[in-house]
């Protein structure tokens, strides 16, 4: 089996795995999966850039921008108040930094966005139990 065949099969498996997970997860978990996907792709992009694989770096960073666009689009700016607006601005900044990373081939922009998203992810994980309790209470009619 060639490297290309192996990579194609691995990609297909990962796609099925991700889509299978999406079908049964709650919204909190879905956002976490998006964040994890973006962080994973940024790590890949850093590796591609360090190895001089510019086209592959650009592809995965474009994917990161798409994911961050989805995260930004999922914000409820009406009910979320200043926090949602601040997150929206931060996501916008992240997308611009990733575009700069694509244009300038600068790994520091990718590292910066990875660190910012990792901080948001940590906070998101921390509120997970609260979200689960609210969802459980709502399911019981209370």
Features:
disordered N terminus, 6 helices, 86% helix, mainly alpha, Four Helix Bundle (Hemerythrin (Met), subunit A), single chain, 142 residues
The percentage of residues in β strands lies in under 5%
Number of helices: 6
Structural class: mainly alpha
Q: What coarse outline follows from CA principal-axis ratios?
A: elongated
Helical fraction equals over 70%
Rg value: 17 Å
Largest sheet: none
**Helix and strand run:** HHHHHH
Could you explain how this protein is built, in words?
The chain has one domain (26-139): Flagellar protein FliS (Four Helix Bundle (Hemerythrin (Met), subunit A), Up-down Bundle), CATH 1.20.120.340. The chain contains six helices and no strands. It is mainly alpha-helical. The chain is elongated. The termini are far apart.
What is this structure, in a nutshell?
The chain has 6 helices and no strands. It is mainly alpha-helical and 142 residues long.
SSE layout and pairing:
Elements: H1 3-24, H2 27-50, H3 54-73, H4 81-104, H5 107-126, H6 128-139
Helix pairs in contact: 2-3, 2-5, 3-4, 4-5
